[in-house]
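Example record

The entry below shows one chain as it appears in the dataset: sequence first, then structure tokens.
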Amino acid sequence: MRGAAGAGRGPAVVAASMMVVGVGSSLGFFPGYFAAAVRDDLGISRAQVGLLVSLHFGCTGLGSVIGARVTEKVGTRTAVVVDQLMVATAAWTAALIGNYAALLGAAVFAGFGYALANAATNEAVAAAVPESRRTLALSAKTSGVPLMATASALLVPWASDRWSWNLILMAAGTVAAAGALVSAAVIPDIRTVHRGRGGGGSPLPRGFWWFAVSAFFLIGSAQPLFSWAVPYLDEGLESSKAVAGAIAGAATGLGAVCMSLTALRADHLGRARRVPLIVGLCLVVVAANLVVMGGLTLGLIVATIGLLAGFIAQLAAIGIMHAAVVDRAPHAVARATGVTMTGYYLGALATPVSFGALVDWLGTYTWAWLVMAVGSAAAAACFARANHVGEG
């Protein structure tokens, strides 16, 4: 039963969920941060590095609907613990085997596990926090991803210059194992109450699939800001790895802080204004991608400004999106999350590898950033349509 299981434990549940989504997504981000080291060690291309990211998040997308149904059956606590153990297993296995095939397998295995984490943490937070603080709570939970990315951007490029990428994965696996223990102690055990014909869950609003399409374009056009920022600044603008990592870390850290500030504003505006706010933020991401592209001719400072704006806008949009999903399907949170995140992670599958392949093919980052700007414009248009879901 929802509600009672998480009542009175809101801050602890949000904090644990923040840790879970950060650790759960880590194997999807690390390849971009130790790209140079793994390319030198294994002799792989940029496209092959991008494929690791794409596979991880693509498998999360493919597993999201099933993950939501599993979460409804086994409960939020079990789903989260299983995810953390899958990440730990994937990271240690890839580190010990030490070849590209093992990295591919780890990306797939941990990616499917992450589908459980998304559905379970949304369900847990929605049950533990009142509606008046829903956007703030879900944005804080989601900020675990950029906070992890911040720490990774600051530490992983530096560490990869001194130690092997294998040791970095071992450290991530150890953290994930610890995350399983914390989750078992803190995450409430919530199971969805089934209603309707044949014992099925509550139906989603008509046209809810627009949220999945919108999420596809949102993350598809913004994911390279995470996955390719460090290589872009290093190779395209001839910055050092340390400086590139510091810029990416500062951008993700600031984005995480602004996520919460924007969430407070979204909670104040209420549920009717949340999706229009996402539309505006998508338009900011359009401009940010173009400014990042302009850094090739205008320099590092301009590219940094674009990265800051892009991280802030896309992270704020993602946090509000989770609240909008709960708003539109309050009695089927796990299922609505599964549908939305299917589109979201298919977008995350599409662009990291295609972005890298486009740069390999054309020998420049210009056209890749331009394509991302077009994708952000499509996200704005689709969210505007999604705002009418459930009407009439």
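Notes for this example: Confidence is low (pLDDT under 50) at residues 1-7, 194-200. The domain at 4-192+202-386 is CATH 1.20.1250.20 (Growth Hormone; Chain: A;).
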